[in-house]
Amino acid sequence: MTTAKDLLFSPFALGPLSLPNRLVMAPLTRCRAGEGNVPTELNARYYEQRSSAGFIITEATQVTPEGVGYLRTPGIHTDAQVAGWRLVTDAIHRAGGRGFLQLWHVGRASHPSFQPNRQAPVSSSAIAIRNGHAYTPEGPQPYATPRALETGEIAGVVARFEDGARRAKAAGFDGVEIHAANGYLIDQFLRDGVNQRTDRYGGSVENRARFLLEITEAVTGVFGADRVGVRVSPLADFNDMSDSDPRALFGHVAAELSARKVVYLHVVEPLSGQALDAAARVTPLLRERFRGALVVNGGYTLETAEAALRTGAADLVSFGAPFLANPDLPERLLRRAPLNAPDVATFYSEGPRGYIDYPRLGEAAVERASAGAQVA
Ligand SMILES: Cc1cc2nc3c(=O)[nH]c(=O)nc-3n(C[C@H](O)[C@H](O)[C@H](O)COP(=O)(O)O)c2cc1C
C-alpha cells in the first residue's frame, strides 16, 4: 500500500541530482564562521552530520562585505572562504550528501559597524528597520538608515551575486539558492512596504521583480538553471516587511522564475502565530505559476509534511529547527522516534556546544540549560 510516508522517504529527481528523500535541510544561520568569515572544520563537521537530508541548503552566506549584518556569518567573496567551503562540500559529499549554498546580501538589515569604512548600509530606499536591533560587535544597536542604491550601481550588486555563484561552484557546491526571503536586500526590492523607487526597479510588480530576475539570470549563467533555486517569503513581516498585494507580486515572480527554468522555488510560509490562512491563499498560486519543484517550509512536522506531499501541494519539504537539533532527522522521522528539542540559547553562540553535540538516535543526550522549540 502506498502511504504518504512512502512519499517523504521516496527519491526525487531535482534537475540532474537524485535525491534519496524529499526532506530538505533549510538554511540556518549559526554564526560560527572563523576569522575572516571563513568556514572551518567545525562547520564541515556540522554539515557532514546532516548529510542524510535529500539536500542541504547552507546558512545564508554574504556575497560581498557590504552584505554583512551579523557577527561571524560566512562569506563567499574571498579565496580563503572558497577554501573553507571546500572543507564543507568535501565532508558532505564524502558522507553521500548534496549541498546548495545560500547567496545573501542583508541590505538595510545591517549597521555601519559591519560596513567597510563604517558607511551606511544600502537598500532599495532610505527607510530604516524600526523593529529590532542589529547585533553589532559593540552590542545591540538600532538599525541605521540605509542609503538607496543609485540605478547605475545595481548592475554591480548583481555582479556580486554572480561572483558568489562562481565561487560557490569553485568550492564544490551542487547548486545555489538565491535568498530573496525574510526582508533582506532582494526582498527589500520586491516588496512595496520598503521599495519606494521611481526608476525601473520600483513601482510596478514587474519593476520591483527586476533586481531578483537580473540576479537569477546572472546566477543561472554560472550554474545552469537546473542547479539554482530561489527562496521567497511572501507574507513574512520579519525585518519590517510588508506588501500591498503579495498575490500579484509573488504570482508574477513565480511565473518569471518558471520561465527562466530555475529548478526549485522555496516558499517560507508564515511561522506559527501568524496567519496561516493567508499563506494558504498564496502558496497554491505559486504552485500553479511555477513549473519546477516547489519546496515548502515553516513549522512542518512528519504529518503535515506528508499531507503536503500527498495532496500535491509541494514536492519537497524543508525543516529548519528540527534539523538543527537532530542530525539524523530523516531516520528519526522514518522510525517515528522522538526528536531532540532545539536549544535556543545556543542557536547563534560560539563553538561546538549546541552545534555538533546533538545526539543521534541511541546516543546519550547532552545536558542543556534551556530547551524549547522556537524559530527565528
Ligand atoms: C537559528 C535559525 C537560523 C536561520 N537562518 C536562516 C538563514 O540563514 N536563511 C534563511 O533563509 N532562513 C533562515 N532561518 C529560517 C529557517 O530556514 C526556516 O524558515 C524557519 O526555521 C522555519 O522552519 P522550521 O519551522 O522548520 O524551523 C533561520 C531559522 C533559525 C531558527
UniProtKB/TrEMBL annotation:
Essential cofactor(s): FMN
Domain NADH:flavin oxidoreductase/NADH oxidase N-terminal, chain residue ranges per copy: 8-337
Family annotation (Gene3D superfamilies): Aldolase class I (3.20.20.70)
GO CC aspect terms: cytosol
Protein name according to UniProt: Similar to xenobiotic reductase
CDD domains, sorted: OYE_like_FMN
GO molecular function: FMN binding; oxidoreductase activity, acting on the CH-CH group of donors, NAD or NADP as acceptor
Ribosomal protein listed as a keyword: no
Record-stated family: Belongs to the NADH:flavin oxidoreductase/NADH oxidase family.
Claim: Glycoprotein is one of the keywords in the record: no
Keyword vocabulary terms for this entry: Oxidoreductase
